[in-house]
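Input record (Table S2, row 343):
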Amino acid sequence: MSNAPEMIANLEKLGDEFLAVIRPLADEQSIRAAQAQFLGKKGKVSELMKELGRLPAGDRPLVGAAVNKVKQTIEDQVQSRLVELADAVARQDLARKVDVTLPARPIGGGHLHLLTQVRLEAVQIFAELGFVVAEGPQIETDWHTFEALAIPKDHPARDMQDTFYVSEEIVLRTHTSPVQVRTMLTQPPPIRIVAPGHVFRRDDDPTHSPMFTQIEGLAVDVGISFADLKGTLLHFVKRFFQRDLGIRLRPSYFPFVEPGAEVDMQCSFCMGSGCRVCKGTGWVEIGGSGMVDPEVFGLCGVDAEKYTGFAFGMGLERMAMLRHAVNDIKFYYEGDIRFLEQF
Ligand code: PHE
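Output record (phenylalanine complex):
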């Protein structure tokens, strides 16, 4: 005849026994089999429970609780052993798949767009000469873009420029020269600014895009001469192309400078001996320049008796094309990663 303390001790022993049984088991199937051996209908715990009925009624709750406890212990053991096994399998998988000795795959980092690189380099070169960066709006008034630069409404230069009009008085700026105007109106000489930025013209072919980038320069001070203009541009070209290239200033007309000149540099492809890029001439045009017209000084509130100044405007796409042998301006704007990655 069993008694309660003996049964409880036996139940606890079963718990320990189960632990010893499953510890060495290494697959789910045998763990489940062991679980059935203890908790199944004909399992060891069930066998013990049969004796429950033979106990005095007062002892049954105590022993019942011990039964539940051992069942719970066994369930918990099964659960934690299965989790352990799954972890071990996952670790093995990892060890098989990850060879930590392999060289790391390169992380594809981005970089600055070619035009941004070129713009920053150009600004840096002028900054070393004492120029600071100035900015102006891309959507600009007709007055700042044309009138204040001595380009009246009926001036043929307005056709040349092929302007996008937002309204009668508002345009997309066709050049960065309105930044000259804004600077002179807001700060007294001495002035030394460069203004890189987007400009817009109704143009579209392999060397022209409806949106492109210029860098404007303006220096106003007592005694500024044409020689200063030439020296500045020559220094810039040599630094930017990192070669001993010459420049020439070819007389030309812009309403806001007098005298005005087109800026040519020796072809960086053939070093001036003549090739396809320079169409055999040895020279390529990179921008416009000149001495600020006294009329513009008048319109912008600068004393033309006291000050003189030079100005220039260059196309950054053109210069990047010459330096990096880019043969279609569209490449800059298409966002094709195969192009962008080369720089
Ligand atoms: N703004 C002129 C252009 O876009 C270039 C230029 C700038 C000419 C400054 C002279 C002086 O064509």
